[in-house]
Amino acid sequence: MRGAGPDIRVVDNWSWWKDVGAVEFVSDIARPFRVASMLAKESVSQRMSSEEGMSCAEFLYPLFQAFDFLHLHTKHNCWLQVGGGDQWGNITSGCEFVRKKTGHLVHGVTVPLLTTSSGDKLGKTAGNAVWLTGSSYPLYQFLLQTGDHDVATCLHRLTSLPPEEVDVIMQQHTTAPESFLAQKRLAEEVTRLVHGGGWGYAKECGNCVDCSGGTDTRGDCDKGSIWRPPFSEVSYQ
């Protein structure tokens, strides 16, 4: 993608993995890795001690991710890998792999994950993902269900609102939590960021569902009505 800012290139790792055979994988990619170091990774030890255990495919995944980093570094001049906090072990393995192969010091950065109240991360694997594509309505409704004790964190992490403004929103929300002011602002800001003007349609649908007792009438309702959340809540840590 080209524009006023830096060029952004999206690549598919199948374009280089399709030419890698089993012998090359074992002799060239897997050789620098040490099993003891891989077992010492916190993510591996936690997975192996879990009830589900860890499959061989999962155990070898850091090798694939490391080779991806090497390819991006050598072919596209990529020096930094960014991922969620649960990717720390994979990213450090990739940095070490690139150093052994090229002698270059590359870098990795991880960011905190949004997790449910039970500690599970939000995502397609856990079955609780909210998709950014498609209609704006599901995203808007998903964010409206954020728990009171988590909404401030989400406003800080998921929006570009200044911290001072978030503090004001939370003060107002604490005064009248039944109005769900903070949740509405969170839903508005994030949906506007993702869908642009589509957030207004999502808000209107939410109002209509509320007024009609669960049926989206899209226009036969009071647009100024207060949205009432469903019984379930989405919580974050």
Automatic annotation (TrEMBL):
The EC number on file is 6.1.1.1
Q: Name one GO biological process term.
A: tyrosyl-tRNA aminoacylation
Cleavable signal peptide = none
Gene Ontology molecular function: ATP binding; tyrosine-tRNA ligase activity
Q: Which InterPro entries match?
A: aa-tRNA-synth_Ic, Rossmann-like_a/b/a_fold, Tyr-tRNA-ligase, Tyr-tRNA-ligase_bac-type
Q: Which GO terms describe its cellular component?
A: cytosol; mitochondrion
Q: Which UniProt keyword terms apply here?
A: Aminoacyl-tRNA synthetase, ATP-binding, Ligase, Nucleotide-binding, Protein biosynthesis
Q: Which reaction does it catalyse?
A: tRNA(Tyr) + L-tyrosine + ATP = L-tyrosyl-tRNA(Tyr) + AMP + diphosphate + H(+)
Q: Which SUPFAM superfamilies match?
A: Nucleotidylyl transferase
Q: What is a single Pfam family found in this protein's UniProt entry?
A: tRNA-synt_1b
PANTHER family assigned to the protein according to its UniProt record, in alphabetical order: TYROSINE--TRNA LIGASE, MITOCHONDRIAL, TYROSYL-TRNA SYNTHETASE
Family label = Belongs to the class-I aminoacyl-tRNA synthetase family.
Task: Quote the protein name from its UniProt record.
Answer: Tyrosine--tRNA ligase
Q: Which organism is it from?
A: Geodia barretti (Barrett's horny sponge)
